[in-house]
């Protein structure tokens, strides 16, 4: 029953989020959420390590302090979001529950708010809500829910290419749903977009960001069989890609063979005449 409620909640959040972009023109005149929100690909960019935030317990921390030699999953959200942010975090932890890696051992999670009006209490409410469903993940020492002032939020968001904007007409933020994957040094490795990524995508992203320090030999060999597609934010099988290319080549080869055979047959018929 709890899974059904969670699923229904996600669907409702997505629908509400879509409706938020379909407000009457009078309510959103001059504001284009599709132009305001987005992600600029900045692979290799480093997060501002000296930038300070406050965690869900009211403790002031620098981003550099949260890097513990492991890959980091970085989720830009705001905790009072009425649309998709709750579903975004729920999706992340649901998928992490089946990844097989250990939070606080193989990777860490940072969810930060880009809404400067939010407080540690807002972060704690969201954390506690998720903790009811995934307590073993949420209670791990490597999971952090952060809030900060406008300067801190912009510094981090700009560094990773995450664009958002506040719409005062509806008192909401226009933003996309995505999870960034950082290396242990705080460099952006990959983005996973939306709510549709799979456990394989997340596991491969963590393995890749770990640069040989995370995952088994089998995981690293599996990574050789996949490539990251920045357009979809997921991993595609190189084998399937090769098969698709090979299949297309076979079709062209057969077409050429048939065409050549028909040409020769016509030539023989003309010679017989």
From TrEMBL:
Family annotation (Pfam families): SCO1-SenC
Transmembrane spans: 238-262
Keywords: Membrane, Signal, Transmembrane, Transmembrane helix
Domain of life assignment: Bacteria
InterPro entries tied to this protein: SCO1/SenC (IPR003782), Thioredoxin-like_sf (IPR036249)
N-terminal signal peptide: 1-27
Keyword Transcription: no
Keyword Ubl conjugation on entry: no
Family: Belongs to the SCO1/2 family.
Protein name: Thioredoxin domain-containing protein
Native organism: Pseudomonas corrugata
Lineage: Bacteria, Pseudomonadati, Pseudomonadota, Gammaproteobacteria, Pseudomonadales
């Amino acid at each position: 029953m709890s899974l059904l409620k969670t699923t229904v909640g996600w669907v409702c959040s997505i629908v509400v989020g879509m409706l938020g972009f379909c407000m009457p023109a009078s309510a959103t005149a001059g504001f284009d959420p599709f132009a305001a929100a987005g992600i600029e690909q900045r692979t290799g960019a480093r997060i501002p390590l000296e930038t300070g935030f406050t965690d869900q317990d009211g403790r002031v921390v620098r981003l550099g302090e949260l890097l513990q030699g492991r890959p980091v999953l970085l989720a830009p959200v705001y905790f009072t979001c009425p649309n998709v942010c709750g579903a975004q975090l729920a999706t992340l932890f649901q998928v992490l529950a089946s990844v097989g890696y250990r939070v606080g051992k193989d990777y860490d999670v940072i969810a930060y708010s880009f809404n400067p009006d939010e407080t540690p209490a807002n972060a704690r409410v969201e954390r506690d809500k998720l903790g009811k469903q995934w307590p073993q993940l949420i209670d791990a020492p490597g999971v952090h829910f952060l809030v900060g002032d406008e300067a801190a939020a912009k510094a981090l968001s700009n560094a990773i290419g995450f664009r958002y904007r506040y719409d005062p007409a509806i008192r909401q933020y226009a933003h996309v749903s995505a999870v960034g994957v950082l290396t242990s040094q705080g460099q952006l490795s990959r983005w996973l977009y939306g709510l549709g990524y799979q456990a394989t995508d997340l596991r491969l992203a963590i393995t890749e960001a770990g640069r040989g320090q995370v995952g088994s030999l089998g995981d690293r060999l599996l990574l050789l069989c996949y490539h990251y597609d920045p357009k979809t934010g997921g991993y595609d099988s190189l084998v399937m890609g090769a098969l698709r290319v090979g299949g297309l080549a076979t079709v062209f080869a057969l077409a050429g063979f048939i065409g050549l055979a028909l040409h020769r047959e016509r030539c023989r018929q003309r010679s017989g005449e």
